[in-house]
Design goal:
heterodimer; A: alpha+beta; Rossmann fold; OB fold (Dihydrolipoamide Acetyltransferase, E2P); 5-stranded parallel beta sheet; about 30% helix; globular; B: alpha+beta; Ribosomal Protein S5, domain 2; 5-stranded mixed beta sheet; 4-stranded antiparallel beta sheet; 5 helices; about 25% helix; about 30% strand
Amino acid sequence: MVLHRKRLSDGLTVTQKVFVRSRNGGATKIVREHYLRNDIPCLSRACKKCINIVVPDAKNELPVFVLSESPQKLVDGRKHYVVLDANIVLQAIDLLENPACFFDVIIPQIALDEIRNVSYPIYTRLRTLCRDSNDTKRLIIFHNEFHEDTYVERQSDESINDRNDRAIRKTCAWYGEHLKSSGISTLLLTNDRGNLERAIKEGLDAKTLAQYIELLPEAEEVKDALPNLETFSSREKDVEARSEFKFPDYYSTARVMGGIKSGVLYQGSVQISEYNFLEGQVSLPNFTKPILILGQKNLNRAFNGDQVVVELLPQTEWKAPSTVVLDSEHFNVNDNPDGDENQNEREDAISDKQRRLLVQDAIQTQKSGKVQPTARIVSITRRSWRQYVGQIAPNSVDLQNGGTQNAFVILMDRSLPKIRIHTRRARELLNKRIVIAVDSWPDTYKYPLGHFVRELGEVESVEAETEALLLEHDVEYRPFSKKVLECLPVEGADWKAPEDLSDPEATAKDPLLAKRRDLRDKLICSIDPPGCVDIDDALHAKQLPNGNWEVGVHIADVTHFVKANTPLDTEGAERSTSVYLVDKRIDMLPMLLGTNLCSLKPYVDRFAFSVLWELDANANIVNVDFTKSVIKSREAFSYEQAQIRIDDPNQVDELTQGMRALLQLSIKLKQQRLDAGALNLASPEVKVHMDSETSDPGEVEVKKLLATNSLVEEFMLLANQSVARKIYEAFPQTAMLRRHAAPPATNFESLNEMLQLRKGMSISLESSKALAASLDRCVDPNDPYFNTLVRIASTRCMMAAQYFYSGAYSYADYRHYGLAVGIYTHFTSPIRRFCDVVAHRQLAAAIGYEPLDLSHRDKNKMEFLCRNMNKKHRNAQFAGRASIEYYVGQVMRNNESEETGYVIRVFHNGIVVLVPKFGVEGLIRLENLTDDEQSAEFKADEFKLSFKAKGSEKIKDVFVFDKVTVQVKSVLDPVTSKRTAQLLLR
Amino acid sequence: MVMSLTEKRYLQESLLSKPPVRPDGRNAEQFRPIEIFTDFLPTSNGSSKIVASDGTECVVSVKCKVVDHAIEKDLIVVDVDIAGRRDDSPLVQEISSILNRVLLLQTDQEQLRLTKKYSFKLYIDVLVLSSYSHPLTLISFAIYSALNCTQLPTLISSKDDLDVAELPTFHDYDMTELNIAVPIMFTLAICGQNVIVDPASSESDVASNGILVTWYNDKVAAPVRTIGLNEEYTRGINPQSLADSIQLIEALAPKVLGALDS
């Protein structure tokens, strides 16, 4: 089809873009008008012409000329700019960000579009890089698609990629011609063989990434960060690394879409088992239980968390979930990074009709027996690849070899395979935590290919380990940017709440001040863990003349400082939560707010958002009122101090009386809650004491709970419920809420089976009340800890609570199962949780304090917000636990001891033991249990592992829930150089 | 144009004379000049515009959709819209029913088959912008030209999807030419013993009957039928006229197709 350009006016021509969109099997021909202009500048300071054609943009600003007039010289002395194609950016974004190379870079718009389609994270990184590097690296986007001279029309029989490559070549040629007089040459970088050959044929100066790096003066420094790809140049060289081994090919998109539509293929996200990296599960809506995926071939290169498409395997291959523990660190330890081994391939073809019958069988089977339907992965829709932290496996490195070599990197996340990297510094990097990026996983490679990004430091050093776990849990820990800090009050730490709320000068600055209530006369105090600096909440209680109690919960007024749609707001929403590590806190909001201006510190005036109830003597709500306020906390107690003060009969002042009243009311509230069926679950939480001088971990202690803990907790729960009801009333579609779904019975199946078999007990799932009662009945008179153990196990069977907006579920599903309340939200910790910030804004709008920002009234935006909150919240929890685990490991390093433990899982080749004292659980492998591995016998239906005990001929039986004595010591795993608690049975 | 009784009488007599004397001086087998433009609508898969010398103008656009041919049996649908006529007027209904029938009956729908499950369905939209004589011949020429320049998306997924389901996926740019034999239709006016092609509006007004002849795959094909051109003068036809018409078209059609294809 002939396309023609039509001149509309001077400098503006129109042409057509035509393409076919196939979607859901249909084919739509789409025609778009495309406008071309002649006022797009080259943005080079060396150019004398473009300055005459530029026009201001919508903001009336002229484009900034970024590219230097004297750019970097290559080793041959030429001054140069580089034009990148999309793949170079996608593969080598780390290199692009490296301050040592890549100056004066031109990114054609067509490449940028492609990058956005392939990987949005890389796109945003590139955008940030372009925005922030004007003075240092100088990257620009050239809008070649809209430039009259560089726009190319697609030719018939030309693939879109070829057309885009041609557009990029045209851009490069245009720059070359345009800047000819200035003596700057323009290089084209591409790793695509066809593009490279065509470019050279057209007379362009084209290079592969590797060739280009060689030409740079600082080649040696950056060579290591080159991505490890199966490029056409390496393919021939690397032939020995590939062998007969081959993963099955992925299905074509047409097949995947057709299969999903006709119900023979299913899409879901794969979850790799934490005990066995060759076993995955995919939860699918059609099936009651997750579908199993067993083995390397069936997993077909999927990573934990990838979006995949699966196909059921024939019935003969259905299996029970594996009872073997397997992790990548100990699997094929002796695999050579330079070679891969053979495996046999078996093909079986079944038609779709048979497959549909298979689905029926699969659903039936799930309901009954032990054997589970299995499936294989036939396509990966979206990769979950990010940067990973790991360390080089020492035995994969040839110490004699000083040059570049292949090495395996074992990742911290045990459910991931090891990564093959190509590095010159393998020897240097031994015993270091390093960050790597995954590049590709061609079907002929047994392990994915990646490249080195940077090193974090020595294994086991606090800095390296802390950064590693923050990176691993996707926690943003970089300092707040300038833009964010600019949103803080200009007065800084000197900010003060106005003395008089009707002071005309103050009200002129803040017109909403008049709506604030002055509560500075109330006797308010805060009760927090010792050493707490971000005080979210404070309380007061006062008896009213009618005998009822006025109780107030006062929450830091964060939204007074964090206004919607500011960079500060965006950053807070992105972080979503503060992260608490043993020795470090990663704040959601800048320090100035969190620990000073918002924090309800004692003896100073602070803004607050108050919930005021009138409660009767039985803690029933008579009346509730919400108001923005200004308060003055009289004292900041720690839990212990508060307890002492309440218990001290000599203290009879009003403040103490108020606290006593609060305590009495809270006990009644708690009883009401428990009567309604609230759960009392447990987790093996421990606290690490740090030596205050050296910051070395001293000892580990299991967290203790005081009555004052639950005092604060009860009133926070009450406030959260009251607020939830109020904001739901005001915003029935977008109220920010939190729910906790009832656990499905299947989650408890295996636990119940164990309890039934071993102790003759069971957990009832009819309601949360029944569950709570049955948990109370799970008592072993000989072992007081047993009940806690059951509670810990039950916690793991529960669903996770989640943030949601009210329009996402029906009212019946708002229920919070664990707390046994009908509607719930988070309102009381706005300094460290973003949900609370949103709840504050919605409550402020509900009481007519200020109008609600549109973004909190938009379902899509709320959906996005909730999803991010849930993710970050989970990550923060994991990061916190990982931090504790690390420190516990460090503590145990110094004190080896014998402790009581409980067997919580039994495998074919090992048992998992929980040690309550340290809150650690560890696997004891069969080889450490017995000298004679052949003697071991595993009975899955009895949860029993029998083996000959070490050093004796007697057969020892170990059942699940058995109380055992174990020797706990911390060892450095020689393969992974990871310190783990090693347990040995005594 | 409205003629007086005398004018009509005069015209009728001249057409009855042997050979017929046509008001514009044409021979019995001569067409008026027409102009055809093809493939001018970018968003449709095929298009044509035909303009006759009397000002009759007709636009045809062809669009396609992927359908499951087990569910949708009719793979071609023609929709006719004549400016100034209601959709339920006899003329519009007659033309659209003839066209739908002819295209469904005569064309080889195998050509539209994509895979074992899916086919293209063609939607042919006919818009007659202005008409001064019976528009069927022109519409049929326009459809013929439009279908012959129709480009359909190219299938890149596999053709056999019966056992292993696949959703058809298409190339994002390349199109394949629709290769399909299209029937064309001629209207002839009968004036006594004479048969004349392409009757002008005045000729239609006095013709004693009209005959529709379909030409498909190098021969006359069904339907061949009478077609009312006016209400005053219509009477039965002589079988000889039918034979004459067919003979005339057999001689004429290859030349017309030659002109349309060039």
